[in-house]
Amino acid sequence: MNTRYTERDVLMAKSNEVLYDKITKNIEEADLNNSLTEDAENVKKAEAVLAENGSKLPYLQNMLNETRAIRLMLHRISKFFDSQKENLSNTNKKLGRAIREELKKIYETLESAAQTSHSTVSAIKGTAPTQSK
User: Fold this and answer.
1) What average pLDDT does the structure give for the chain?
2) Is residue 27 in some structural domain?
3) In angstroms, how far apart are the furthest CA atoms of the chain?
4) Is residue 96 part of a domain?
5) Which one of 4, 13, 23, 33 has the fewest CB atoms closer than 10 angstroms to its CB?
6) CA-CA distance, 73 to 80, in Å (whole number)?
7) Prediction pTM value
């Protein structure tokens, strides 16, 4: 799931960069045409390109910033869940260890009680009078 978001982010960043480069190139060409030519038609064309593409730059920059913000937010969410997974794993290990220790104590207590019971039964059998027929 994380790689899907990463691939999408890479594709969006590349497309944003391509659009940004294309617009920047058009603006530079418009500036160059505007500064180097005396031809009124080329100047008008350059100004039209500049006006058309210049209005798109802030929008693309905002999209790029939002993409970065979303990617950062997803990264933070991913880190949070990774840390929660680690915390849960540690808690499970501690609980498992505590349960095993308690079960060991219960087993030792039962084993001790069984030995006491066997020794008591043996003592009773040894001291009990035998009946003869």
Assistant:
1) 78
2) yes
3) 141
4) no
5) 4
6) 11
7) 0.37
**Domain interval for residue 26:** 2-78
In this predicted structure, the answer to whether residue 105 has a pLDDT above a threshold of 60 is yes
What pLDDT score was predicted for residue 106?
Answer: 94
Distance CA 10, CA 5 (A): 9
Distance (Å, whole) CA 29 – CA 37:
11
* 56 in any annotated domain: yes
pLDDT (0 to 100) of residue 133:
47
pLDDT in tens, 28-71: 776 666 555 556 676 677 677 777 776 667 777 778 888 888 88
| pLDDT recorded at residue 61 | 75
With tokens 């009990």, the residue in question is 128
The domain total for the chain is: 1
DSSP state of 129: P
Of 69, 60, 65, 71, the residue nearest 8 (C-alpha): 71
Element (H, E) at 5: helix 2-36
Tell me the angle at which helices 56-127 and 40-54 cross, rounded to the nearest 10 degrees.
20
Amino acid at 102: E
**Phi/psi at 131 (nearest 5 deg)?**
-95, 130
Tokens representing residue 44 in the block: 């008008």
User: Nearest CA to 115 among 104, 105, 123?
Assistant: 123
